[in-house]
Amino acid sequence: MSDSTFVYVIYIASTPEQLWEALTDGSQTKKYWFGREVRSDWTEGSDVSFLDGNGTAVDQGKVLKIEPYRYLSYTFSWLEDKTLRQTAPVVTFELQPMASIVKLTLKQDHLLPADFCDEKEGFYGFNNGWPAILSNLKSLLETGRTLPPITV
User: Fold this and answer.
1) pTM of the predicted model as reported, rounded to 2 decimal places
2) At what angle do helices 16-24 and 122-143 cross, to 10 degrees?
């Protein structure tokens, strides 16, 4: 079995500091991540929890590496996922300032290949999920508003 990787790049008219806060502050993530609140103390080895609108943990992880305003990497596991994996999926955000914008590169490694999961999991699920989340983030930082709700 060969793992898949998903990579997505987006350019946001923001500062690294504003973008970093949006990535690491739960009150911000709730706005653009469709109600998901991220919680962590953001030190290497610390827990990361992702809470739904009712405050229930639905996803979890561990901070692997952190360089404020530049780099954030953590494992990402779904609590409902019972798939036996050799390696937990890893989410990495790289922030690169470019004049008055920030290039944000998202990479998620160790996804299951398409033949091991349905269309909402693995590479195909992330190909639909991450672009919507990051487009919502871009809209929030650039306009102060998120995109209108979408149904998938």
Assistant:
1) 0.85
2) 130
Sign of CA dihedral 41, 140, 8, 1: positive
Identity (one letter) of the amino acid at 96?
Q
Of 40, 51, 44, 83, give the one whose Cα is nearest residue 65: 44
Task: Classify residue 150 by its DSSP letter.
Answer: -
Q: How far apart are the first and last CA of the chain?
A: 29
Residue ranges in the chain assigned as alpha helix (H): 16-24, 26-32, 122-143
pLDDT tens for 72-110 read 999 988 766 666 667 788 999 999 999 999 999 999 988
Q: At CA 62, angle to CA 43 and CA 114, rounded to 5?
A: 145
Residue 25 CA to residue 29 CA, distance in Å, equals: 6
Q: Is 7 left (phi over 0), alpha (psi -120 to 50) or beta?
A: beta
User: How far apart, in Å, are the Cα atoms of 91 and each of 57, 63, 79, 105, 149?
Assistant: 18, 10, 16, 10, 24
